[in-house]
Design a protein that fits this description.
Elements: E1 2-5, H1 19-32, H2 34-45, H3 56-63, H4 68-91, E2 95-100, E3 103-111, E4 114-118, H5 127-140, E5 144-149, H6 160-169, E6 173-176, H7 179-188, E7 198-200, H8 205-214, E8 219-220, E9 228-233, H9 239-250, E10 257-262, H10 265-279, H11 285-295, E11 297-300, H12 304-314, E12 318-322, H13 326-330, E13 338-341, H14 347-352, E14 378-386, H15 388-405, H16 408-415
Parallel strand pairs: 4-5, 4-7, 5-6, 7-8, 9-10, 9-12, 10-11, 12-13
Antiparallel strand pairs: 1-11, 2-3, 3-14
Amino acid sequence: MIVLKEAERNAADENAPVEQTVREILETVRKNGDAAVQSYTQKFDGFLPPSLRVDKEEVKAAYAKVSPEMLETIKFSAERIRDFALHQKECLKELRYEISPGVVLGHRLIPVESCGCYVPAGRYPLPSSALMSAIPAKAAGVKRIAACSPASRGHDGIHPAVLVAMDIAGVDEIYCMGGAQAIGAFAFGTETLSSVDMIVGPGNRYVTEAKRQVSGSVGIDMLAGPSEVVIIADKSANPGWVAADALARCEHDPNSWTVIVTDSRKLAEETAALIDSQAAVLPTGKLALESWRNNGRILLADSLEEAVSITNEIAPEHLQVMTSESSRTAEGLTNFGSLFIGHYAPVAFGDYVSGPNHILPTMRCARFSNGVFVGTFIKISSFQEISRKGAEDLAGRCASFAELEGLFGHKHSAEVRKVSPEGRK
């Protein structure tokens, strides 16, 4: 492998420590509830909502502020996401079987009671994130879905498109709040907001650190970092398309990154030149080009087999395959958050309209974890139903195991089951 372009800096190393700041915010929210969240909202977002909770009239009014075309697009995307989530749910089955006479084993699928969906609102409004977090929860059967988003610049509260997306997704409660203080409100509850059982959704490093600190008292989906993509491309790929896909990922924020892995030096050189020229005409081109120069890489592999091996080691959030035999190349790929196979499958489709979730593992976590899906919100809880006959068969073995481990209370608990009901005292 030859490195044709290396990242100029490691953005992650430049992040200021946030652990103590977040700890102080969470503790203040725990103690002071609504007042703390509203104070931090005014401090960080420059907006003081009269109430944390957005009422139904405000949500209804948001529909008039969204164009008919945008409304139709949100509904289309919601239906695709919902359809995929429901198909995923069909793959999850309850289990019940008799392993031996009188011993019935199995598991139940139990949705979590409540969840909080965090919808970021930094540089851009993100109605897509509202759909991706709330719709799988609804499909899973979560009874209470709360969602929050910070106030959007230029709007008196949450962006109308985000409010509409939350409503279409089936959110039960909407709150105007963001940052670590919103995570604290979800985790601990306030006068206005009851605590939730699980928190999902992407956010900046303060949100991520807050999720880390409350994890354990509530469930979380994952600790996600900046957006990532690896693009595997050979000489059959269109360098203009590869450049466009690289810039699409880089425009998220200055810490996002793209890695292009190819066995074609010609493609690599043409793509690098086109990234510069395409960025010059994009409204977001300055940010995207900064991110590409600072964090982007081009790796020249000896073969597509080596390209696959390199990519599995990187374990990216998003993974595109643009080769002459994309499906065959994809067969060897094992570490990714979401896979996009073929020249006509850009990550942008997955971000919005294809159907699978876009809340995905980053920072090499794809080696051992998956993105948000309907199963994120479902507990698979085992059970054992044992009759007198079953207990008689198990008691002796259980007692022997317990004695070996020195747990004589366990031994006694097993042995008393060997006594017939008539022999009980």
